[in-house]
Design a protein that fits this description.
Elements: H1 9-43, H2 45-81, H3 85-119, H4 128-145, H5 149-164, H6 169-191, H7 201-225, H8 244-253, H9 255-276, H10 280-296, H11 298-316, H12 320-348, H13 360-375, H14 377-392, H15 396-421, H16 426-435, H17 437-450, E1 455-456, E2 461-462
Antiparallel strand pairs: 1-2
C-alpha cells in the first residue's frame, strides 16, 4: 500500500535533482524579498504599507507573465521529452514575443490607473494622513519598478526554458546572483550607507530594478555562450517567426493558463482588499504574514513546479502509466513537506514580527495571521500539487475551473460578504476563507483521480 505513495531511491534522486535548484533559487529570491520587506519595515509602518500595496499589484503582473510562460512551457517540456529541439526553440520565441506585449500592457495600466488601484487598499479605519502618505510611497515605488518589467520578463523566458530542458542550475545561479545584488544595493540605498544618499522606499525599488538587469545578463550570457547545453538558442533570433500551428496550440492550451494565473493573482489582490476594509493595520500585518509565508512555502511550491516538468516530460514520451503513478508519489511528497514546514512556521510566527518597526497591534495581528496560514499549509500544498498535475497534460479548462474560477466564485465572495455585511473581525474572516479551500482539495482529488489529464499534447496521444 505504501509503495503507491512512496517512490524508489532513483525516483527521489530525479525529483530532488530538479527540485532543489528550483527551491534554492526561489527560496533565496523570496528570502531576499523578505529582507527587502524587513528593511523597508524598519523605516516605518506607513512606508511598509505603501510598498506592500505596490507589491500586491505588481504580483498580479508577475503572475500574468508566469501564466504566459507556463502555458508555453507545457509544450517546451513535452517537446524536450520528445527530443524536439526545434519545438523548444519556437516555444521560446513565442515566450519572448508575448511577454514583451504583456510588459507594454502592464506599464500602460499602472501608468494610467495606478492611483485608483492603490486607493482601493486605503479605505479601512486609520489615520487619513497615514493613508495619504502610503499612497504617495506606493506610487513612487511602482513608477520605478516599471523600469524593471521587461528585463524581468525576458530573464524568466530564458530561465523557464532552461528548467524545462532539465538545466535548472543556470537559472538558480542567475537568481542567486541577482538577489545578492538586490540585497547589497538595498542595504546601501535604503539606509544611505557607504556615502550613498538615504533613499528609503525609492532605494528599494532602484535596487530591485538593477537586480532584474543583472539576472537577465547572467542567464542570457550563459545560454548564448554554452549552446551545447541549450541547443534551443541556436538560431533562436535568426527569425522571430513561430509556426502558426504551434501558435494556435499554445493559444488554445496555454492562453487559458495565462488567464487563470492573472485571474488567480487578481483574486488574491481582491482578498487582500477585503481584509484591508477592517483597518490599515491589517494591510501591514498581512504584508508581514504573506512575505514570510512565501519563504516557508517555497519547499512544497517547488514540488509543484517539479511535477509540471517531470510529469510533462513523461507524457511527452508517452509514459502515461508511469506519469500517473509518479503524480501520486509527488503529491504525497508535497503533503509531507507541508506538514513539517507548517509546524515550523507556526512556531516562528511568535518571533517574526518583532524585527519590524511597527506597532504592537500590527505585530500581534501578523502573528495570528501566520499561525492560521501555517495550519492551512497542507491544504495549500495538496491544491498546488493537484493544479500542476492537471496542467502537465494541458487540461487548461479544468485548471481554470479548479484555480481562478474557484477563487472568484467561492473565496472572494466569501471574503466580500463577510467584510461588507458582517462585523466579524479579520482573524475569523481570514480563517474562514482559508478553510473553504478544503473544497478545492476535494475537487483536485476528483480531477486527478479521473486521469483525463494523461495526454501527450504535442502528438495528441491520450491514455486509453
Amino acid at each position: 500500500m505504501l509503495n503507491k505513495f512512496i517512490g524508489t531511491k532513483d525516483f527521489y534522486k530525479r525529483v530532488f535533482k530538479l527540485m532543489l535548484p528550483i527551491m534554492l533559487q526561489t527560496g533565496i529570491t523570496n528570502f531576499v524579498n523578505m529582507l527587502d520587506n524587513v528593511m523597508v519595515g524598519r523605516i516605518g509602518t506607513v512606508e511598509m504599507t505603501g510598498v506592500a500595496i505596490s507589491n500586491q499589484l505588481i504580483f498580479v503582473f508577475n503572475l500574468c507573465l508566469f501564466g504566459a510562460i507556463s502555458g508555453a512551457g507545457i509544450f517546451s517540456s513535452q517537446f524536450y521529452g520528445n527530443r524536439d529541439n526545434e519545438g523548444v526553440r519556437n516555444t521560446f520565441r513565442f515566450k519572448i514575443i508575448f511577454c514583451t506585449f504583456i510588459c507594454a500592457v502592464g506599464i500602460f495600466i499602472f501608468a494610467v490607473f495606478g492611483r485608483g488601484l492603490v486607493n482601493l487598499y486605503l479605505q479601512g479605519e486609520g489615520d487619513v494622513n497615514d493613508a495619504a502618505a502610503s499612497l504617495e510611497f506606493a506610487l513612487k515605488y511602482i513608477r520605478l519598478m516599471m523600469l524593471g518589467f521587461w528585463p524581468y520578463a525576458l530573464s524568466q523566458c530564458y530561465s523557464s526554458t532552461m528548467r524545462e530542458i532539465e538545466r535548472p542550475v543556470i537559472p538558480m545561479v542567475a537568481g542567486i546572483s541577482a538577489v545578492a545584488v538586490n540585497f547589497s544595493l538595498n542595504y546601501i540605498l535604503i539606509f544611505g550607507h557607504f556615502g550613498a544618499p538615504r533613499l528609503g522606499v525609492d532605494g528599494a525599488a532602484i535596487a530591485t530594478v538593477i537586480s532584474r538587469f543583472a539576472e537577465l545578463i547572467i542567464v542570457a550570457a550563459f545560454v548564448h555562450l554554452h549552446k551545447r547545453e541549450a541547443p534551443f538558442i541556436n538560431g533562436a533570433y535568426a527569425s522571430l517567426k513561430v509556426p502558426l500551428k504551434l501558435v494556435k496550440q499554445i493559444i488554445i492550451k496555454g492562453m487559458p493558463l495565462m488567464v487563470n494565473e492573472t485571474l488567480w493573482s487578481a483574486g488574491m489582490a481582491a482578498l487582500s482588499q477585503c481584509y484591508s476594509v477592517r483597518s490599515l493595520d491589517v494591510v501591514a500585518a498581512n504584508n508581514i504574514a504573506q512575505t514570510f509565508y512565501n519563504v516557508f512555502s517555497v519547499s512544497f511550491m517547488s514540488v509543484g513546479v517539479s511535477i509540471g516538468i517531470i510529469i510533462g516530460q513523461m507524457l511527452g514520451a508517452n509514459e502515461h502509466r508511469q506519469a500517473k503513478q509518479s503524480s501520486i508519489k509527488l503529491i504525497a511528497l508535497s503533503l509531507m513537506i507541508s506538514v513539517v514546514i507548517g509546524a515550523a512556521f507556526a512556531l516562528c510566527a511568535e518571533f517574526i514580527p518583532e524585527i519590524y518597526n511597527t506597532t504592537d497591534q500590527v505585530k500581534l495581528l501578523a502573528t495570528r495571521l501566520m499561525q492560521i496560514i501555517a495550519v492551512a499549509m497542507p491544504i495549500d500544498a495538496f491544491a498546488n500539487a493537484s493544479y500542476f498535475t492537471l496542467r502537465s497534460g494541458g487540461k487548461v479548462f479544468i485548471t481554470l475551473l479548479f484555480d481562478s474560477v474557484f477563487v472568484w466564485c467561492v473565496s472572494v465572495p466569501t471574503a466580500f460578504i463577510i467584510s461588507r455585511f458582517t462585523s466579524i473581525p479579520v482573524l475569523p474572516m481570514f480563517a474562514i476563507v482559508q478553510t473553504v479551500n478544503l473544497l478545492k482539495c476535494v475537487l483536485g482529488f476528483i480531477f486527478v483521480k479521473r486521469g483525463d489529464w494523461l495526454k501527450n499534447i504535442v502528438s495528441g496521444e491520450a491514455v486509453n
